[in-house]
Specification:
The structure holds 2 protein chains of 2 kinds. Chain A is mainly α. Chain A has a single domain, classed as MetI-like fold (Orthogonal Bundle). Helices cover about 75% and strands about 0% of the residues of chain A. In chain A, helix 3 crosses helix 9, helix 13 packs across helix 22 and helix 19 packs antiparallel against helix 22. Chain B is of the alpha+beta class. Chain B is about 20% helix and about 30% strand. Chain B has 8 helices and 22 strands. In chain B, the strands form 6 sheets. In chain B, strands 7-8-9-3-10-11 form a 6-stranded mixed β-sheet, sandwiched between helices. A 5-stranded antiparallel β-sheet of chain B has the order 2-1-4-5-6, with helices on one face. In chain B, strands 12-16-22 form a 3-stranded antiparallel β-sheet, with no helix packed on it. In chain B, helix 3 packs across helix 4. The longest helix of chain B has 17 residues. Chain B is elongated, with a radius of gyration of 24 Å. The chains are: A mainly alpha, B alpha+beta. The interface between A and B is medium-sized, with 23 and 33 residues.
Chain lengths: ~525, ~350
């Protein structure tokens, strides 16, 4: 029986999905209205030399991070996929873990040891270390799944080892690496905490500063729209490259794994040294630095009440945000999993468009919106939760979609044939089987929202603190010891989804390892590095 | 006749290009109809329309005397009293075998007062899975899963059983064995059934009646013997098995058809026309070694153990295929005399 239901979707489901997508689009639309309505002053803001400088700074930062990511990721991926390096399995997992360290936490870890670190190069250095797994993880998977047959065919046609690399392996790998690189660029563009800690006047920092200097809010809005446009370009390019990368898989049947290159003794030492350097800088150093701060600051006053308050703040705001995100995501996800057609496609695309939205943009838009339309909602928990929902609903949509799609629609048909009505049949089969996946999506949103910084700073009620805002304010005043418990709590929280994901997917029938599993990669790809 | 299933002028699909385009067929009560056709011929769509999973554009479906699809009528699947078995069984993965089978039954006791558990145990027995009721679907083999799917579909005593290629995911030996068992089970319970398959052997060996669907239209329906021996068209003939098509070159003085094999007996119903062709199945030909150097020569032999397929090249360069029992005792290059065992069919 056919897998997708060719029937038109139920009207109620369709209406719910349309409303959800419209609600998600509200902040951005309002921002546009605001900018267009500002008329001449918007043009003036756009044409200032400061605008051009900001674009230049952000583009340069993104370019530096891209270079850094390639330098870190390509050799790492090659060594871990095509050589006989010892401890490969463990190293593959370790080299993916930097994704679990929010980049502003890493930035804090570096600056707390080297207080002089500042500027473009420092930011690019930390961002590269935080985002290189976006390229190395898919590259490892792609290199490992490459069929030996293609390389052997090229060798039999007279190509040498390096020529094969250049003319066969390289062209097949670049869309994979390119898609990962664009994701790293997207997160760099949206990152707020790191650029602020290192005082780089990239978009996010300038927008936040303009917003704080409340006389210049049109400039903030203009820059926010420009930032969204830049991010949109990256999102579109990424989607295109990803589509191309998936086309390289040819033929059915199990491919023979490509041959492994024996490194020899010197090669092994060099390979291990390289990985020790990469993992050390990206993972071990930040963790050690934070633990060091914690230990050395023990004699000072340790404010348990403040930590508990921040944790409670993070949990309450994020839980509300996750619930709201699920509310928006479930109709869109169910629709996308079960029905096709132009309307369904465009609804799904519309919902996913907000997945590249920087937190600072949503924060700014909701500040404007609440002040203009509903001042009572300005800086309330509800507005903060709504911001989380808009920012992170795409994660829940992805989770809902794949959870529902994994349930064969035939089960529902069979339940109908056995006498159940449409709703009862859905609950007994699809609903029953998909809810763990949908709940996991909600959990992912919850844990991601706990790390959110810029929108939280702008929208939180006065006096309301989360782990991220406490880390931010303590770091801002140079109180590194006081910031350490919050940094550690954030790392632990960030590691939970990665761990859950690998356990959840690793335990599935088929026994694919988490890191090489494309679904896990998909989930990891949407897991933000920093503060969005 | 009020029992069984009647499909009349059914059109299913969208707009001007429907998948099922005006199909009619009839299943006698308690009998098994096999619907065969190439992939894309609309056979699964037809089945899903009978089940009520797909709406019909026009036409009517009657199950056990009740119109379930027709002008202004569309009974939802849950009220049609049907059983469905899909290609992969579609067992509920979160329920045990017992709870899968009991899914369509009342929780405690059936309408006739039998405890539900007793009926489930009885069905487990019938499908040969005693003692496996506590297992989960993933702990069963493919064949066992299909048996559970069948038991689950039989549990509410459906008026018609719809089988959508239920054996195609199984390996060849098991497929034939399970097919026979299911057929026997369905006929012993007197269940009217429709089996969709693309495997003509399965259709011919299991069904009481076979219907061939081509591009959404029912081309011919009849008993297996009728369809195989008296196909209404060359398309039907070649779908149900291999054929040799010999153009009629003329009419012999005795009225027989003249072909490259010489004069050939044909079913004497109609007179021979010059633009017709004689249809001969490979098993209708016989081969005898010849000493005549000018005789047709064997070009290929495929030996299957129980029988062999021999391709022979004729004087005019065309080839015919013969099926002989066991080993043919022939090799490529051998000269043979071709005989015709039974009258051919003129189409």
């Amino acid at each position: 029986m056919t897998m997708t239901n060719p029937r038109r979707p139920p009207l109620l489901l369709l209406a719910a999905a349309v409303i959800a997508v419209l609600v998600m689009a509200v902040p951005l639309l309002y921002l546009l209205v605001r900018v267009l309505g500002a008329g001449d002053s918007a043009w003036a803001a756009l044409l200032r030399s400061r605008t051009l400088e900001t674009i230049g700074t952000s583009v340069l930062l993104v370019a530096l991070v891209a270079v850094g990511v390639l330098v870190l990721a390509v050799p790492t991926a090659w060594v871990l996929s095509r050589t006989d390096l010892p401890l490969r399995r463990m190293l593959i997992v370790l080299a993916a873990l930097p994704l679990a360290v929010p980049s502003y936490v890493a930035a804090y870890a570096w600056i707390s040891i080297f207080p002089a670190m500042s500027g473009m190069l420092a930011a690019a250095f930390v961002m590269s270390l935080a985002t290189f797994p976006y390229v190395s993880i898919p590259l490892i998977a792609a290199l490992r799944s490459l069929d030996a047959g293609q390389e052997e065919a090229a060798r039999s046609l007279g190509l040498g080892r390096t020529a094969v690399l250049r003319r066969v392996v390289g062209p097949m790998m670049w869309p994979v690496a390119g898609a990962g690189l664009l994701l790293a660029a997207l997160y760099t563009l949206a990152e707020f905490g790191t650029v602020s800690i290192f005082r780089v006047d990239a978009f996010t920092r300038v927008i936040y500063a303009s917003y704080r200097a409340s006389f210049d809010r049109t400039a903030a809005a203009v820059l926010a729209v420009l930032l969204v446009l830049l991010a949109l370009v990256l999102v579109v390019l990424e989607a295109r490259l990803r589509g191309r990368a998936s086309r390289w898989r040819t033929g059915s049947g199990a491919p023979r794994p490509a041959p492994v290159i024996a490194l020899g003794r010197r090669g092994r030492v060099a390979g291990l040294a390289w990985l020790a350097l990469v993992v050390g800088l990206s993972l071990l150093f930040p963790v050690a630095s934070i633990v060091g701060q914690l230990v050395s600051s023990r004699q000072r006053e340790f404010d348990v009440a403040a930590l508990a308050g921040a944790l409670a703040g993070s949990v309450s705001a994020s839980t509300l945000g996750a619930a709201a995100a699920l509310l928006l995501a479930i109709p869109v996800g169910v629709l996308a999993a079960r029905y096709t057609g132009r309307l369904v496609r465009s609804l799904e695309a519309g919902a996913f468009a907000s997945h590249g939205l920087p937190g600072v943009v949503v924060g700014l838009a909701l500040v404007f919106l609440t002040l203009a339309v509903l001042p009572a909602a300005y800086q309330t928990l509800a507005t903060l939760a709504f911001a989380y929902a808009v920012l992170f609903a795409p994660k829940a949509i992805g989770a809902t979609r794949s959870a529902v799609a994994a349930v064969p629609p035939d089960l529902e048909s069979v339940a109908r044939s056995l006498g159940r009505g449409p709703v009862s049949a859905w609950w007994a089969t699809t609903g029953r089987l998909a809810w763990p996946g949908i709940a996991a999506g909600g959990l992912l949103v919850l844990l991601t929202a706990m790390k959110e910084l810029p929108a939280t700073l702008m929208l939180r009620p006065t006096g309301f603190e989360t782990l991220a805002t406490r880390l931010w304010s303590r770091t801002d005043v140079g109180a590194f010891g006081e910031a350490a418990p919050y940094a550690l709590a954030l790392i632990v929280l960030a590691a939970v989804p990665a761990w859950l994901m690998s356990r959840w997917l690793g335990g599935r029938p088929g026994g694919t390892t988490a890191v090489t599993d494309p679904e896990w990669q998909g989930a990891a790809m949407r897991e933000p590095v920093g503060t969005r | 006749m009020t029992d069984g299933v009647i499909v009349e002028d059914l059109v299913v699909g969208y707009g001007s290009d429907p998948v099922v385009r005006g199909t009619s067929c009839r299943v006698l009560p308690g009998s098994l109809l096999a619907v065969v056709g190439a992939s894309g011929s609309g056979k699964t769509t037809l089945l899903r329309a009978i089940a009520g999973f797909l709406p019909a554009q026009s036409g009517a479906i009657t199950i056990a005397g009740r119109c379930v699809t027709g002008p202004g009528v569309s009974v939802p699947p849950e009220d049609r009293r049907i059983g469905v078995v899909t290609q992969d069984g579609s067992l509920f993965p979160h329920l045990t075998v017992e709870r899968n089978i009991a899914f369509g039954l009342p929780r405690q006791t059936l309408d006739d007062g039998t405890p539900t558990a007793e009926r489930v145990a009885g069905l487990l027995d019938v499908v040969g899975l005693e003692g496996l009721g506590g297992r989960y679907p993933h702990e069963l083999s493919g064949g066992q899963q299909q048996r559970v799917a069948l038991a689950r579909a039989l549990a509410p005593r459906p008026q018609v059983m719809l089988l959508d290629e239920p054996f195609s995911a199984l390996d060849a030996g098991l497929r034939a064995e399970l097919g026979q068992q299911v057929r026997d089970l369905l006929s012993s319970t007197g269940t009217t059934s429709i089996l969709v398959t693309h495997d003509q052997d399965e259709a011919l060996s299991l069904a009481d009646s076979v219907a061939l669907l081509v591009e959404g239209r029912m081309v011919q329906q009849g008993s297996p013997e009728e369809l195989y021996a008296h196909p209404s068209s060359i398309g039907v003939a070649s779908f149900l098995g291999e054929v040799n098509l010999l153009p009629v070159l003329g009419v012999a003085p005795d009225g027989r058809a003249l072909t490259v094999l010489g004069p050939v007996d044909t079913d004497g119903a109609q007179p021979v026309q010059p633009d017709q062709r004689v249809v001969l199945r490979p098993e209708q030909l016989t081969l005898v070694p010849s000493l005549d150097a000018g005789a047709p020569r064997v070009v290929d032999v495929a030996y299957f153990g129980h029988d062999s397929i021999v391709d022979v090249e004729l004087h005019d360069g065309s080839r015919v295929r013969a099926r002989v029992l066991g080993s043919p005792g022939l090799h490529p290059g051998d000269a043979v005399i071709i005989g015709v065992r039974e009258p051919g069919l003129l189409l």
